[in-house]
Amino acid sequence: MSILLGVIVGMVLGLTGAGGSIFAVPLLMAGLGWPITQASTVSLLAVAVAAAVGAWMAWRHSYVRYRAALLMAAVGVLFAPAGIHVADRLQPSVLTMIFAVVLAIVAARMFYMAVHSKADAAVVRATVAGEGASAPGKICKVNPATGRLIWTWPVTMTIGLIGAVTGFLSGLLGVGGGFVIVPALRATSPLSMHSAVATSLMAIALTSMGTVISGLIQGRALPLAVALPFVAGAVIGMALGRLVAPRIAGPRLQQGFAVMAMLVSLSMAAHSAAWI
Fold first, then answer.
1. 3-state secondary structure 135-157
2. Residues 163-168, mean pLDDT to the nearest whole number
3. Which has the closest alpha carbon to 185: 227, 155, 152?
4. How far apart are CA 106 and CA 95, in angstroms?
5. pLDDT class for 274, splitting at 50, 70, 90?
6. Which of 38, 76, 138, 208 is spaced 20 to 30 Å from 169 by Cα?
7. Closest to 211 in 3D by CA, of 48, 36, 65
8. Among 26-35, 225-234, 249-258, 262-271, the least confident range
9. What's the structural domain count of the chain?
């Protein structure tokens, strides 16, 4: 069961683009009957490995802004323990409701992007390649000669803030945070969707692994008998997603996943409300 769930998560990561990793926690909760705090630790481990594979693929074909990714990850790892601390002190029903709300927001944004920005919706995690249309973000600037970010204090603070939010949410909900990183980078910098996704993969891999380690330090359990098959399945799913993505990925697929995510969100909210 854990291998099958991992394959599903990996394929979602490969096909849906940024934010796909948020499906891992509800799948583990539904498939294995785990509480959200237990599911989040295993989810993050799988997300870290799958994102690392995706980042390696993107590194060969795209422009990964590694300095931005390292800064986001460094700040994110510092804020992740705070998220874990809050999660461990909330009632599971309350934490599940928070997750349901975040998932609903991600689903709504995914559907909106698939309808109004079809070119961006075609960019998927597993097959990020090339540059693409620039975003209108005005806080961060890019050197036209090198394609690299021009580092100033506003840029550093902006990238650091994105990392802080991502790290806190990773600790709180066990999510990778691509649904935060990509739109934030697009809103504040001229990076293309390709570069934003590629950069987010590296940041997610590092932040998620750091959050797993923080969770273990704070007493979280990591059942390797389930976690390792789940991780293996996620990597297999990522590879499968990479193979089929060029043929089926696009706006319609994004819309379908968005509807599915909204249904999962409503189901989680209903179960959470019944527990409260």
1. CCCCCCEECCCCCCEECCHHHHH
2. 96
3. 155
4. 17
5. low
6. 138
7. 48
8. 249-258
9. 1
Identity of the residue numbered 93? S
Q: Could you tell me the end-to-end alpha-carbon distance of the chain, in angstroms, rounded to an integer?
A: 29
E strands, 58-121, are: none
Chain position carrying tokens 């909330």: 90
Q: Shortest CA distance to 173 belongs to which of 92, 83, 110?
A: 83
- pLDDT tens-digit profile of 39-81? 899 989 988 888 888 788 777 766 788 999 999 999 999 999 9
Query: What element of type H or E holds 223?
Result: none
State the pTM of this model. 0.87
Contact by Cβ (8 Å): 128, 200: no
Question: Which residue range is the domain that position 27 belongs to?
Answer: 2-275
- Cα–Cα distance, 161 to 157 (Å, whole number): 6
